[in-house]
Write a structure and sequence with these properties.
- This protein is α+β, with helices and mostly antiparallel strands.
- It folds into three domains: 267 residues, BirA Bifunctional Protein, domain 2, CATH 3.30.930.10; 109 residues, Herpes Virus-1; 118 residues, Rossmann fold (3-Layer(aba) Sandwich), CATH 3.40.50.800.
- Helices cover 40% and strands 24% of the residues.
- It is built from 18 helices and 23 strands.
- The strands form seven sheets. A seven-stranded mixed sheet has the order 3-9-10-16-13-12-11, with helices on both faces.
- The mean pLDDT is 91.
């Protein structure tokens, strides 16, 4: 099974490059590790995902507004946020393979294997018993109970070690669990050390500590420092949210799995400011709303799940991830966090400025609590691309590779294909394209046999192909081919726009949420 998943992932990565979705950055110079460029089709898909998120936040919620904060911020921002002192990953090296790993991820990998063993026991038992009670089996089966006990013990040890920054204990957990390097197979480990993940640079002409600034490791702080600016200029009343899409940068020591973990990435974040005491209600509200936003895309409800955080930050009230079933298994796609008033209070302390909201109904001022939703745009892109990639055997024995990208997100909505390069067909095709291009992104192609052109459009995920033939010149009808079913129907040119816009509209997708 793992091999199949590895092959799928490799095929998706190769397809992404071959069809203009994602290229290794500065490839002519042999690239740069964990940095990627979005090609012509990738940029369109990425922009469509952004639009789907941005409209959901700012159009569907009259109490959410968007900003675009600068990447560079005053360096004290990162002292206040805790990133200067505590934005670290625990890293460990294997002396034989010379590979570096995150210690917590090695331990989590061990836990995942135990969870897989539990699932295997459940599957075996389910086949044996007709009226199988999963919960009862998990609670009473001796082997499963032992596995669960072990998982709880390891989780508790890791939580305590990470919370106190005890790297000696982290190494001891790895040793006690006899975790081996997946490459060398040995347990010849170094000590666990902390690495700060922020990129630093100098501002101005002098390279000294006084001029040291950072590339932002997250986009949230630009929202927090602008809390009062937005609240006052927008006359916002609590509860309200501030949304932002922007680049962030992390010096990931272990960056891998294609665009899943990169050094330069993009986040879509919304900070929702609420009255203290109401954060629990809004946390549950945003969990439900964000899950519906994801599932409305139609990538399969079973591919999403909530995963509660075991290791909460000291200021957090609650935190969970929406995980997606990527080719490498369930991984974090979006984080939803109840952050209390930690961020605003910390910025108050470091800046000496009051960051409070005056509640006219209660006639009191307070620092709001915050519920955050943060989705990685690149991970969102990968979830759509990997899930949409299909290798199909057709009835006539031939093969095709198709990207079943949801139509509203597809880079091109429609391909305009004159059957031949003569007899006035290209001119008629151009006329149709000139009419549609203001509402839909169109792709024009007249080279090669029509079958080959269909295959190329399948490969980039174009949901509809319009073929202009000699009959078009007679009765002004065209053939529309559906990417997913490959069925064709004859449609009058005057009906094209409404039919296609209806099927490809992001706004219609939003109406379903």
């Amino acid at each position: 099974m793992a091999n199949q998943e590895d092959n799928l992932f490799k095929n998706v990565i190769a397809h992404a490059k071959e069809y203009g979705f994602i290229f290794p950055s500065s490839e002519i110079y042999d690239g740069l590790s964990a940095v990627y460029d979005y090609g012509q089709n990738g940029a369109e898909l990425k922009n469509n995902i952004k639009e789907y998120w941005w409209k959901f936040m700012t159009l569907l919620h009259d109490n959410i507004v968007g900003i675009d904060a600068a990447i560079f911020m005053h360096p004290t921002t990162w002292k206040a946020s805790g990133h200067v002192d505590a934005f670290n990953d625990p890293m460990i090296d294997n002396k034989d393979s010379k590979k570096r790993y995150r210690a917590d991820q090695l331990i989590e990998g061990y836990i995942e294997k135990l969870e897989e063993k539990i699932e295997k026991e459940v599957e075996k038992a389910a086949k044996r018993f007709e009226n199988f009670d999963r919960d009862m089996f998990i609670a009473t089966n001796g082997r499963v109970v032992e596995y669960k006990k072990k998982i709880d013990e390891v989780n508790e040890r890791m939580k305590n070690a990470m919370g106190s920054g005890d790297m000696v204990e982290m190494k001891k957990i790895i040793d006690d669990l006899e975790i081996a390097d997946p490459i060398s197979g040995t347990r010849n480990w170094t000590e666990v050390r902390q690495f700060n993940l922020m990129f630093s640079t100098e501002i101005g002409s002098l390279a000294d500590d006084a001029n040291k600034i950072y590339l932002r490791p997250e986009t949230a702080q630009g929202i927090f420092v602008n809390f009062l600016n937005v609240q006052k200029t927008g006359r916002m009343k609590i509860p309200f949210g501030i949304a932002q899409i922007g680049k962030a940068f992390r010096n990931e020591i272990v960056a891998r799995q294609f665009i899943f973990r990169m050094r330069e990435f993009e986040q879509m974040e919304m900070q929702f400011f609420v009255k203290p005491g109401e954060e629990g209600k809004w946390y549950e509200y945003w969990k439900e709303k964000r899950m519906r936003w994801h599932q409305t895309l139609g990538l399969g409800a079973a591919n999403y799940r909530f995963h509660d955080h075991l290791n909460l930050a000291h200021y957090a009230k609650a935190a969970c991830d929406i995980q997606f079933n990527f080719p490498m298994g369930f991984r974090e796609l979006e984080g939803i966090h109840s952050r209390s008033d930690f961020d605003l209070k910390s910025h108050e302390k470091f800046s000496g400025k009051k960051l409070q909201y005056f509640d006219s109904e209660d006639n009191q001022s307070y620092v709001p609590y915050v519920v955050e939703t943060s989705v990685g745009l690149d991970r969102m892109f990968l979830s759509v691309l990997a899930n949409s990639y299909k290798e199909e055997k057709l009835e006539d024995g031939s093969d095709r590779v198709v990207l079943r990208i949801p139509a509203p997100l597809a880079p091109h909505k429609v391909a305009i294909l004159p059957l031949m390069k003569k007899d006035g067909l290209p001119e008629k095709a151009a006329e149709i394209m000139n009419d549609l291009k203001y509402d839909l992104r169109c792709f024009y192609e007249e080279k090669d046999a029509i079958g080959k052109r269909y295959r190329r459009q399948d490969a980039i995920g174009t949901p509809y192909c319009i073929t202009i033939d000699h009959q078009t010149l007679e009765d002004n009808t065209v053939t529309i081919r559906d990417r997913d079913t490959m069925k064709q129907e004859r449609v009058h040119v005057k009906d094209l726009r409404s039919k296609l816009i209806d099927a490809c509209s992001i706004n219609n997708l939003l109406r379903k949420i």
